[in-house]
Design brief:
three-stranded antiparallel β-sheet; 60% helix; Fic-like fold; 385 residues; 5% strand; Arc Repressor Mutant, subunit A; 16 helices; elongated
Amino acid sequence: MSLTLKLIKIEASYFFCINPDRTKPWNDLPDLPLDDSLYKDLEIHEALRNTKAALARLQGRSIAIPNQGLLINSLSLQEAKASSQIENIFTTDDELYKAYSQEKTRQLPGAEKEILNYKEALWLGCEYLQINQFDKHYFVRMYQEVSQHSDGIRGPIAQIYIKEGGSGPNAGKAFYTPPRGKGIVEAKLLNLCDFLNDDEKYALDPILKMAMAHFQFEAIHPFRDGNGRTGRIFNIHYLTKKGLLDYPILFLSSYILQYKNEYYSGLSGISQRGSWKNWLLFMLKAVEVTANLTYDKVNEIVTAKDAILGALIQETSIARPESLIGALFTQPFTRVKHLTQKGLYAENTARKYLDQLADMKIVEKRMIQGNSYYLNLELYRILSE
């Protein structure tokens, strides 16, 4: 290794105070922004260029679709499901889609309810950020929605630490201990919000900012529960707030779920070694791959919708076929009441049309607890792949 490279590594570690003792609260967690030496790198620059291109392609494709409701509900539901699976909250697609098609969610089983809470938080946050900046209230509101707790920032004496998972010899021991003490968490969260909101003072590419801020939020760990889900919701909200996406249709959690070990290794690599480059490259690849995957799913959904609409126009006398197809692609399961509540058809007409689609094998009719559900087979296939 050359002397120059050694000096760069020395300088990088000098500008970032690490926390190798996993049992010690990281009260010296450095504020943002980072020193330039930690992220100004040719490999990061090239990865950022590819990520920006993939995200721009997805944004361009999605805004060209007249009815974005075809995408928003179903794709955001997939993000919610993947994010919850990272926290070991599991349910089947059938149970999740059935739960989503119901009006009352209070009586849902735990997993389905938690996933739908996440999806609701996606929309609440988007609405909040249309007129507000990132602030403590935003993060508290997202935490409360995903966790269904009513408290806020954890208290200064709360003995919060991240436990080692698995069943090995270190299982249950401290993997990481976040900052702790009177006013410390609040001050670090305030710095994070300032970094996110002030693009003149902190003039960085928004995708890099998102990656840095995601780590910072998880390191602060401001809540007693739900920090992972809240941080992943933030990722999408920051991209929409900065205009890189119009709607929260990027299900980034699917990539994190697939490479869960690398995700957690990246987080610990910063706290213990100051390895920001590995983390940034991981997050840039996550956004790039997910944007391309979402782009493909958008195209598949639109192609399937157009094919089914064409068949209805040519082979049936169904009234307002465009409206019927729009309703079918808003969520995987459709019920008669979904069509009557929108004022599309009378009850008998809605049932007749849905049964007709079942005969055409466009939907599959399922009787669940005495109620008729109609599963959009193509949408279900696309979302499940």
